[in-house]
Amino acid sequence: MPKLRSLLFAGLGLAIAAALALVAFRTEPVPVDLHAVMRGPMEVTVHADGVAAVREPYDVAAPVSGVALRAPVRVGDRVVAGETVVAAIRPAAAPILDPRARAQAEAALREAQAALAAADAEIAAAEEEDAYAAGQEERITRLAERGLTPITALEDAHRRARAAAAGLEAAQSRRGMAEGAVARARAALEEPVARGACCHEIAAPVSGVVLRVDVLSERPVQAGAPLLAIGDPADLEIRADLLSSDAVGLPERAEARVERWGGPRVLHARLHRIDPVARTEVSSLGIEEQRVDAVFDLLDPPEYRLGLGDGYGVSLEIVAWAAEDVLRLPLAAAFRESDAWAVFVAEDGAARLRAVELGRIGDDAAEVTAGLEAGERVVLHPSDGVAEGVAIAPRGTP
Asked: Cβ distance 224 to 235 under 8 Å?
């Protein structure tokens, strides 16, 4: 009996030792996050910052040089085409003459008046010559009709009459030129226009809202200087600044979502055009980039975007590619292995390395074209402890 008890205690000790050895040398499975690869819709988007802008702003410029009076309108005022006066310009006054300039102007006036008097005398002489030549022509014509004078005398009389008439016309033209010189000389001596003189008023070219006032207070302006801008704040478009490489990949009439504009809902937009010319800009990291402007039409009615105005900043999410049924792989599961994409697949409690082929790659998912089947579970964010054949256990819900 004691011998049997000893055998029992020895067997129990051996079992305990074997269990302790098994626990000591057993490898614990690596806890991982698993995700089942499924089919479904997928988008590839391009994110960009944009600015809301009035589609057709009208810039009003000064039609003449002068002094622009204080603006009668302010930013935000509504104006009516052809009725609301939006600007007024007083024509530039003649410069004040110093004594030397005035003496020169007075001398020029006297010179012009003398030329006018000479022209009057020349006209008087030309009139006398014309009357004499006409009388001679009439007398020789009667003699020629009676055969009392040769034909050559008649031809000479016609020629002298025509020459005298032309000389009279030339003298009259020179008198007109002299009159213009007198008027110009007198204008140079006129006093500047009084401050209260009549001004040139400019009416609104279109109905809308004043977007910008360039000349608020009274100041001199040159012809063509911008005065203000008018537009319809309800007719807005979105202008986005894109990398040229992103712009090339956008489809025609690409859809976009307008976010972070300040309103409670996401707005919808559609690509209208991409400028054909890019520009070089330096990023905040000091890298030269080729950037291009893209214009989007807002699709939502104005009542859905109340408060959005010209120059307001927005954020755009542009759909570069979309499909309704693709095999989606989280990017958190993919990594590069020997210049190819690979994942760890959970098979019978162990991690199996598998090469995969990816198509379109989005922000958080990629399209799987080969290497995986729907329903297979992949390891998300595989750590250094995950390798081919290593035992794994799901950390969360599989």
From this structure: no
Tokens of residue 218, six digits: 């009274």
At a CB cut-off of 8 Å and minimum separation 6, what does 317 contact? 45, 46, 47, 256, 257, 259
Cα distance between residue 300 and residue 312, in whole Å: 17
To the nearest 10°, report the CA torsion of 127, 129, 131, 135: 180
CA distance 367 to 359: 5
Amino acid at 268: H
Exposed/middle/buried for residue 56 (C-beta within 10 Å: 0-12, 13-18, 19+):
exposed
**End-to-end alpha carbon distance in the chain:** 55
Is the Cβ–Cβ distance between 72 and 201 less than 8 Å? no
CA 279, CA 243: separation in Å to the nearest integer? Answer: 10
List 344's β-bridge partners, or say none. Answer: 353
| 33-79 tens-digit pLDDT | 999 999 999 999 999 999 999 999 999 999 988 899 999 999 999 99
Q: Which amino acid is located at 378 in the chain?
A: V
Locate 390 and state its tokens. Answer: 């290593």
Q: Under 8 Å CB-to-CB from 222, ≥6 apart: which residues?
A: 62, 65
The tokens describing 88, both together, are 């007024």
Helix (H) and strand (E) counts for the chain?
4, 22
Query: Nearest CA to 311 among 242, 206, 225, 212?
Result: 212
Q: Cβ contacts of residue 340 below 8 Å, gap of 6+? A: 355
Given a cut of 50, the residues of the chain with pLDDT beneath it are 21-25, 195-196, 397-398
Q: How far is CA 257 from CA 46, 54, 170, 323, in A?
A: 10, 19, 77, 17
**Measured distance CA(52)–CA(72) in Å, rounded:** 27
Report which DSSP code applies to 270: E
d(CA 279, CA 341): 35
> What are the backbone angles phi and psi of residue 181, rounded to the nearest 5°?
-65, -40
Q: Which residues contact 231 (CB under 8 A, 6 or more apart)?
A: 54, 55, 56, 57, 58, 208, 209, 211, 310
